[in-house]
Amino acid sequence: MPELLDLRKRTSHAKFAAMVGISRPAVSGLVVRGVLPRSGSAGTWLKAYVRRLLDEASTRNDANQPGLTEARTREANAKAEAVEIQSAEKLDNILLAEDLEPLLEELREIVRERVMAACEGAKTEIEGRYRVVLLNEDLADHLKRAI
């Protein structure tokens, strides 16, 4: 059974290495790089070491999986939108496409009739003012195809 360490006291590199499962030279490297304070207790070292592991893990996730955060954001947005749609449907605030189609068709007919009436009025005015005769294909046929 491994030796228990008093986290309030200083410990050796070898004992700390055994406690966290790394090599003694790795502990020395952490001290040299300032990750572990030179005069810290075993508890201070453990906190610093765990903090470093957490920082590395979050950095690794960010660097190696940049799309993961975006994918999670898209997923969360999609779920939120689905909930909003369900709520709106419950409140009858959404028009379904099949309910909207007849209204749009009626609107298209009204617009078509008004545009064609305006075309006929413009044709009559142009013919009277300039004493010319315009054929339907000169104007109306183009408008019918556009509508």
Structural summary, described in words:
With 147 residues, the chain is an all-alpha fold. It has two domains: 13-65, no CATH class; 97-146. It is built from six helices and no strands. It has helices at residues 13-20, 24-32, 42-64, 66-90, 97-130, 136-146. Helix 1 (13-20) crosses helix 2. The radius of gyration is 38 Å and the shape is rod-shaped. The chain starts with 12 loop residues before the first helix and ends with a helix. 4% of the residues are buried. The mean pLDDT is 82.
Structural class: mainly alpha
Compute the number of strand runs.
0
The CA-CA distance between the termini, in Å, is 86 Å
Strand content: under 5%
Largest sheet: none
Count of DSSP H/I helices = 6
The overall pLDDT, averaged over residues, is 82
Residue stretches low in confidence (pLDDT < 50, at least 5 long) are none
Order of helices and strands: HHHHHH
What is the C-alpha radius of gyration, as a whole number of Å? 38 Å
- Tell me roughly what share of residues is in helical segments: over 70%
Q: What's the overall geometry?
A: rod-shaped
Structural domain count: 2
